[in-house]
Amino acid sequence: MSVQLVGVNFTYPGAGAGVFDVNLEIQPGELVACIGASGSGKTTLLKMVAGFEFPDRGQVIIDGLDVTRLRPRERQLGVVFQNYALFPLMTATDNVAYPLKVRHVAREERLRRARETLQRVGLAQFADRYPGTLSGGQQQRVALARALVFQPKALLLDEPLSALDAALRPLMRDEIRRLQREHGIAALHITHDQEEALSMADRVAVMEAGRLVQVATPTEIYDRPATRSIAAFVGQANLWDGHSVGGDGVELPLGLLKLPPHDLPERTPVTVLVRPENVVVGPAPDGINEFSCRVTRDRFLGSLRRYDAEIRGGTVLGETSARAVIERIHIPPQNIQLIPAGPHDKPLEEKQP
Ligand SMILES: Nc1ncnc2c1ncn2[C@@H]1O[C@H](COP(=O)(O)OP(=O)(O)OP(=O)(O)O)[C@@H](O)[C@H]1O
C-alpha cells in the first residue's frame, strides 16, 4: 500500500508559508523520514497526507486511490503523534480498540483484535492498565498499537519518539520498523532527530522552506548532499567555499586542495565538503593535503574525540579515535566531496559542533 504526493501545493491562508511542488512516492513497506529545520514544512506535509489540511493544487494518492478531497478518517491511515494522545480514562485495550469502535466493529471482535495488537507490541500484560500508570515507552507502544489495529493503508509518524528517553528510542525505532515492514505499509516519519532519520529510513526527504530539496537513501544524503545547506544540516561538516583550478585542484581559503580528477572549468565556484571523520591525524604518506595544526578545542566523546584544528587559513573540524597529541592532519583526496554552488543554496543553518 503506497502513498503518493503529486504536485502538492498548499499555502496557509494569510501567510506565505506552506508546502510547494511536492512530489513523493512511498512504496509499500518503505519508511521515508522527513527532516528539515524548524518551520520548513514537515508537519504541513504530514497534514496533506493525513487530510488535516487540503492541498490548493495537486493530488494525494493512497493505495492507488485519489484521496485528495477525503477527510482524515476516510483515508484509513494510522497516525502516531509525539504526545501519544491516548484517552486517559480508557484502559490500554479500550484505547487500542477505539478506532474499531468508530468503524462500528462489534465489541467482542474489537476487544479481541485490540488484545492481539497489544500482544504484538509486547504489552499483553498491560492490557487493563490506564495510560497514566504506564511508562512513556509503554504509552507510545499503545499509541502504535492503536494506529495499527485497523490495518491502516499507511502509517504517519510525527515525532513519535521525541518524548522517550535516549535508551528507549533505539528499541522503539526497531519496533516501529519491524511492525511497519510486517504490515507491508508505507510510512512517513517526521523527525528532528537526524540519527533517527538516518538509522531508520529507507529514504530521507529533506525539506527547506516548504520544498523537498533532496530525497535519497541515508548514505546518499550524508555522502552526497545535493546542496551546501543540506550538507550543513545533516551531520557535522567542514564546508569551504572556493573555486576550481581545473584538473584535480580547488583553491580555498586554507590553500590549494588536491581532489580526485574533475572536469570543472577553471574558476568555477565550488563548495568543498569534508566530513570530520574523513580528516586523518598525522602526516600524509605523499604529503598531499597535509597541514600542520594547533588543536584549539578537544572534546572527548568516549568512542571518539572531536577536535578543532587551527591551520593557516582556517579551522578544520576532525574526529578520531587516536589519543595522541595532534600536530599534523591530512585530508586524502578521495575523502573530499565537491558540491557545485547552486541557486538553491540559502544562508546556512550550521550547527555548532
Ligand atoms: N495554521 C497555520 N497558519 C499559518 N501558518 C502556519 C500554520 N501552521 C504552520 N504555519 C507555518 O508554516 C510553516 C511550516 O510549518 P510546519 O509546522 O509544517 O513546520 P515544521 O517543519 O513541522 O516545523 P517544526 O519542526 O518546528 O515542527 C512555518 O513557517 C509555520 O509558521
Question: How would you describe this structure to a colleague?
Answer:
GO terms for molecular function: ATP binding; ATP hydrolysis activity. Keywords: ATP-binding, Nucleotide-binding, Transport. The protein has 353 residues and is of the alpha+beta class. It has two domains: 3-223, P-loop containing nucleotide triphosphate hydrolases (Rossmann fold, 3-Layer(aba) Sandwich); 236-340, no CATH class. The chain contains eight helices and 21 strands. It has helices at 42-50, 92-102, 107-120, 136-148, 169-183, 194-200, 218-223, 228-233, and strands at residues 3-11, 18-26, 31-36, 57-62, 65-66, 77-81, 154-158, 186-190, 203-208, 211-216, 238-244, 249-252, 255-258, 269-274, 280-281, 290-292, 294-300, 305-311, 314-320, 328-330, 337-340. It has a six-stranded mixed β-sheet, with helices on both faces. A hairpin with a 6-residue loop joins strand 1 (3-11) and strand 2. The model is unreliable at 343-353 (pLDDT under 50). The protein binds adenosine-5'-triphosphate (ATP). Adenosine-5'-triphosphate is lined by residues 12, 15, 17, 36, 38-44, 192.
Number of helices: 8
Radius of gyration: 24 Å
The CATH topology of the largest domain is what? Answer: Rossmann fold
Strand count: 21
Major β-sheet, in short? 6 strands, mixed
Please give the CATH architecture of the largest domain. 3-Layer(aba) Sandwich
N- to C-terminal distance: 40 Å
